[in-house]
Amino acid sequence: VGTITQPTCALATGSVVLSGLPASGTWTLTRTPGGTTTTGTGTSTTISGLAAGTYTYTVTNASGCVSPSSGNVVIDAQPATPTAPVVGTITQPTCALATGSVVLSGLPASGTWTLTRTPGGTTTTGTGTSTTMSGLAPGTYTYTVTNASGCVSPASGNVVIDAQPATP
C-alpha cells in the first residue's frame, strides 16, 4: 500500500497506489470487501474510484498463485460542503455613517471558516455560526463560506447596501 488520496470537496472517491506487484506477466488484484478485480502488468498501479471504507488487496500472478492480503487501505468520507451563508439583518448607511453592515448566519459550527465577498474578493476568517460584516460601501454583495476542510459553499443571497442619505 502506497500513497492514499482521500476524497475532496469536488471528488467523492479516493484512490491508492499499490506497488510490489509481479514484475513479469499479467496479474489480477482482488479487493476485499466486494471482490472487485483489476488486471494489469507492471510493478505498481493506481486504483481509483474508492468509496469511503476500509479495503485490502490480494494479487494473483500469471501462475495463479495468490499473495497474502495487503495492509488496510482506509478511505475517509467526503468532506461536507457548507450551506450558503444566510443573510440576516442589513443595516443601511445613515447621515452619520457612510457604510452599512449585514449579519450573516448559518456558518459552519465547528472549525475556522473564511467568508469571501463578491465583488472584490475581500476575505474574513472566524469561528461560530454567525458574524456581522461592517464597513460595507453602497453596492450589492454576495458571500461564500469556506469551511476548515476547504469546501466552498454556494453564494448567499444578495446584500444590498444603499447610498448614504444626503445631509440637508
Comma- or semicolon-separated keywords:
168 residues, mainly beta, four-stranded antiparallel beta sheet
Explain what this protein looks like in three dimensions:
The chain is an all-beta fold and 168 residues long. 0% of the residues lie in helices and 45% in strands. The chain has no helices and 14 strands. A 4-stranded antiparallel beta sheet has the order 4-3-6-7, with no helix packed on it. A 4-stranded antiparallel beta sheet has the order 11-10-13-14, with no helix packed on it. Strands 1-2-5 form a 3-stranded antiparallel beta sheet, with no helix packed on it. It is rod-shaped and about 95 Å long. The mean pLDDT is 96.
Count of alpha and pi helical runs: 0
How many beta-strand runs? 14
Largest sheet: 4 strands, antiparallel
Radius of gyration: 26 Å
Outline, from the CA principal axes?
rod-shaped
In whole angstroms, how far apart are the ends? 75 Å
H and E string: EEEEEEEEEEEEEE
Helix and strand content put the structural class at mainly beta
Mean pLDDT: 96
Unreliable stretches (pLDDT < 50, length at least 5) are none
**Percent range for helical residues?**
under 10%
Strand content: over 45%
How are strands sequenced across the largest beta sheet? 4-3-6-7
